[in-house]
Amino acid sequence: MPDNTMMNKKGMVTKIHTRIKTEPFKNNYDLVGEELGRGKFAVVKKCVEKATGKEHAAKFLRKRRKGEDCRGDILNEIAVLELAKSNPYVVALHDVYETTSELILVLECAEGGEIFNQCVADNDEAFTEKDVIRLARQILAGVAFLHRNNVVHLDLKPQNILLTSAQPLGDIRIVDFGLSRRMDSLTEVREILGTPEYVAPEILNYEPITTATDMWSIGVLTYVMLTGESPFLGEDKQETYLNISQGNVDYSQEVFEGVSSLAIDFIQSLLHTNPRKRATAEECLSHPWLSGHSPHVHTAVPPAPPMPARVPLESLDETRELESLD
Ligand code: ADP
Ligand code: MG
């Protein structure tokens, strides 16, 4: 029986309740279809549970990364998923398997894929403001739950927000708790984490990380969902970091054509370089942009007919991780 506890790195949850199965994964599941996605150390594949015929997503995580034992990090990811089990907007964890080289997380399958795809889509496939309002409420409900439980996600970006279905547009599921940390009052997390474009200024400045760090990322996420453009993305990493630390954001009519002024006000309440000035998840949920009963009546700028061609964000994928500041 593998040991389910570990030494405590800063802010990591140390204990999990799920029984880790050591029998072969393939005894109970068949891998089907194509790969669902991949990150730096994980590959995610669709699978079917033999006993029930139900589809799931199996996330295969290597325990050794760059010569280091990362089992503890994966247990932390599992612990956070357990903690958020009751929240509908956090992906559900079904089963865990372990082999000599990998841990396999069997997750609820989010059939609609990453919201990233619709952020970069043009015209008819792109989100409308009404869609974004509904999805933002769900993201915030999930994140408010995490924050109430003193968990910060630290990697909120369009590749880690999935949809239960794409067409018709379903509900969101927050995934990838690989960087998540527990914020108990004594723990000061000062680490370089996250993805350049979504990373908050305090991370670049080696200042303490708080729940406000996630709120910055939600500001960036909302900007991207509404405009198809990444607010801080520069020609290179240095320029991106500079844009972030200076809080350099384009709120022009040109970028926000057809988007309400309440939406812009909402984003501005999050993209404050000073984390103490940023709205909390609960405050966001009562912001007039999200709390109104008929959100479409708030449109200030008349909606433009077809949206202008969106700026491609392919570079997002090349910058999945923040490696160094030089
Ligand atoms: P990493 O830590 O390597 O970034 P993620 O958990 O983000 O791993 O998974 C990588 C990708 O796999 C995601 O961006 C998404 O496209 C896909 N994916 C992850 N979990 C699921 C899921 N439960 N259902 C469907 N696709 C998923
Ligand atoms: Mg990811």
From TrEMBL:
Q: Which GO terms describe its cellular component?
A: nucleus
Localization recorded for this chain is: Nucleus
- What are the EC numbers? 2.7.11.1
Report the record's Gene Ontology biological process terms.
Answer: apoptotic process; intracellular signal transduction; positive regulation of apoptotic process
Name the chemical reaction catalysed here: L-seryl-[protein] + ATP = O-phospho-L-seryl-[protein] + ADP + H(+); L-threonyl-[protein] + ATP = O-phospho-L-threonyl-[protein] + ADP + H(+)
Print the keywords alphabetically. Answer: Apoptosis, ATP-binding, Kinase, Nucleotide-binding, Nucleus, Phosphoprotein, Serine/threonine-protein kinase, Transferase
Q: What is its main location?
A: nucleus
Q: Which domain of life is it from?
A: Eukaryota
Alphabetically, the GO molecular function entries are:
ATP binding; protein serine/threonine kinase activity
- Domain Protein kinase: residue ranges: 30-290
Q: Determine if Plastid is one of this entry's keywords.
A: no
The reply on keyword Disulfide bond is no
Q: Please tell me which top-level EC class this enzyme sits in.
A: transferase
Family assignment? Answer: Belongs to the protein kinase superfamily. CAMK Ser/Thr protein kinase family. DAP kinase subfamily.
Under which name does UniProt file this protein? Serine/threonine-protein kinase 17A
State the organism of origin. Answer: Alosa alosa (allis shad)
